[in-house]
Amino acid sequence: MQSRTPGIHNLCPEIFHEQIEDLRKIGIDLYSGLELALAQSVIINTLGRYFWAKECTTFGHRQDFFANKSDVRIIHLAHMLWSLKDQEGFAEFLRNKDTNNFESTYYELTAAYWFLKSSKSVRLVVESGVKGADFDIEVKEFFLYNSLNVEVKAKQIDFTTEQQIINKFKKTRSQLPQDGNGVIFCKVNLSGLLTQKELIQAAQIFLKSTKRIAFIVYCWDSWNLIQEGIALAYIAVNREGEMHSIFGESSTPVRPAFLVEAIEWHQQP
């Protein structure tokens, strides 16, 4: 197996196909084994060997987020990293993230990946400290919007009242520009304390009080108690209520892009 210095420059189908051939030579030939091995390669080349050793191996001391659903989380994360690798700001975005508290970054990547599937491009924004410009993702040509500015929040404590949600959104809106094309993407835990109807109502109340935000997206893992899988679901809400299916299918991919592209590269004439 050829030795390479880790880096984003290694994320190309040709190199990953070579890795598939090398893995098969040492007896790793099952789809599941190739999938996990290549996912770990994506993570080494984007987040580094230290992060990989700590969060993606059995001898690392994982943070709680990776201790739960570890292998499927690694594969899903690698798929998103691969899919976003050519977008503006990707390398700098990763360099400036706190890898010891990764849940927020994971959902920023989730939001960027979902928006990218239905837009021309996304730009991953590095924190600047400037009021009104400290959002996470700039989206170009998303349906009827020429551009959107997205702020992502990964809520780790359950909301228990609609007013808590409204207060959270009020604190968040100052991070977005005043031009009305803001989006708040909020990861929530559906604990049963609030229904989806109440989440929608809280979003509508907030949106009617501001012109800065166009719509809200709630995101959650609908398989939260199932260890073997991730199925991310969402609701998008504007001032009129629940929106149409703006992201389409958004659960964990059946075949991650890094594996599909490596195989397809080999099949090209």
Major β-sheet profile? 7 strands, mixed
Give helix and strand order, one letter per element, not per position.
HHHHHHHEEEHEHEEEH
Radius of gyration: 19 Å
The secondary-structure class comes to: alpha/beta
Helix percent reads 40-55%
Instruction: Tell me how many strands there are.
Output: 7
**Strand composition percent:** 15-25%
Low-pLDDT segments, ≥5 res: none
A few lines on this structure:
This protein is of the alpha/beta class and 269 residues long. It has helices spanning 13-25, 31-47, 49-55, 64-67, 70-84, 90-95, 103-117, 162-172, 196-207, 257-267, and strands at residues 121-124, 137-142, 145-154, 182-187, 213-221, 232-238, 241-242.
Indicate the topology.
Layout lengths: L12 H13 L5 H17 L1 H7 L8 H4 L2 H15 L5 H6 L7 H15 L3 E4 L12 E6 L2 E10 L7 H11 L9 E6 L8 H12 L5 E9 L10 E7 L2 E2 L14 H11 L2
Parallel strand pairs: 3-4, 4-5
Antiparallel strand pairs: 1-2, 2-3, 5-6, 6-7
Helix pairs in contact: 1-10, 2-3, 2-5, 5-7, 8-9
